[in-house]
Write a structure and sequence with these properties.
single chain, 88% helix
Length: 321
């Protein structure tokens, strides 16, 4: 619809191709193919023209390139000739410069050697002057003390011997100082090690003392506990012994009047008691009971049984009366 807005109003109305007849469609397709062929021919013509223009331009560029190459070859030859001359000139200048440096170094070296020789000559001159003074001094000493020296050279020999002895003494002193320093260092190390050992022993003693105090405290607690248990055991034995004595007294009184009151025969009970006592004593030896409390308690229980029988008989007699 948008394309129809730009169409010529006086142009004939075209029929859509899909609604036209087959011949019309073939004619339209041929027309389109002809248009495409015309466009292709026009493009070929344009391409041929451009190709000819490019060929002419390429030929011009090739000719210019050849001209530039020839100019470059000529210029390169000129540069090589100048470079060779410049190189030879540089080599000659470098050789002259090195030779100059060598000569300058030799001059400086010789000047320095001359200065050293002059200084050495000055030193030797001073030493000669000093030796002359020393020679005069030795001559004066020898003249004033001829009895001490046979010749003047003996003074120098004595001086050399004394100087050598002094040097040896200095060496010995340094060696002794070194040994003293080593011994001092060894003593210091040993003292430090001894202090460390003493400190370690003190620490061990402190730990052992703490351990001993703990053990002693535990021992005291155990002793107190044992004494308390022994006290309780003694009190218990005392109470048991009191009970046994009371029961024994009652048993004796019952046995005294058994013919009048007791109906049951206690001899069988006593025989059983003796048999039981023998078995109990055997067990007591096995259990290592030092006081035989269990045996006495068992015997007391039996006596209480006899006393109970006695009281039952006595009660029955009283009821009969």
């Amino acid at each position: 619809m948008e394309s129809r807005e730009y169409e010529d109003p006086g142009a004939p109305i075209s029929v859509p191709l899909d609604r036209a007849s087959t011949a019309t469609q073939l004619l339209e397709m041929r027309r389109q193919m002809q248009e495409v062929q015309d466009v292709l021919e026009a493009q070929k013509t344009i391409y041929i023209e451009k190709e000819e223009a490019f060929s002419r331009r390429e030929d011009n560029l090739r000719n210019k390139d050849l001209e530039l190459q020839e100019a470059l070859v000529l210029f390169n030859r000129y540069l090589k000739r100048n470079e060779s001359k410049q190189k030879n000139a540089k080599q000659a200048a470098e050789f002259e410069r090195k030779q100059k440096e060598i000569k300058v170094a030799e001059i400086a070296k010789k000047t320095k050697e001359i200065g050293k020789l002059r200084e050495k000559w000055e030193e030797l001159k001073k030493k000669v002057e000093q030796n002359e003074k020393y020679k005069d001094f030795l001559h004066q000493v020898y003249t004033k003390h001829p009895e001490d020296f046979d010749e003047r050279d003996h003074i120098m020999h004595r001086y050399k011997s004394l100087k050598k002895t002094h040097e040896e003494l200095n060496i010995k002193q340094k060696e002794n100082e070194r040994k003293v320093e080593e011994l001092s260092k060894l003593l210091k190390d040993e003292t430090k090690a001894q202090q460390n050992r003493t400190l370690e022993l003190n620490n061990k003693y402190a730990k052992s003392s703490k351990t001993f105090e703990k053990i002693l405290e535990h021992k005291n607690k155990e002793m107190t506990k044992l004494e308390f248990e022994e006290h309780n055991e003694a009190a218990r034995r005392l109470r048991v012994s009191s009970c046994i004595m009371a029961v024994d007294n009652l048993y004796k009184r019952c046995c005294t009047n058994k013919s009048e009151v007791m109906q049951k025969n206690p001899s069988k009970v006593l025989r059983d008691k003796h048999a039981h006592d023998a078995e109990t004593s055997k067990k007591q030896k096995q259990t290592k009971d030092p006081h035989g409390i269990e045996n006495q308690v068992d015997l007391t229980l039996r006596k209480l049984g006899i006393i109970a029988n006695y009281l039952e008989d006595y009660k029955s007699i009283v009821e009969m009366w």
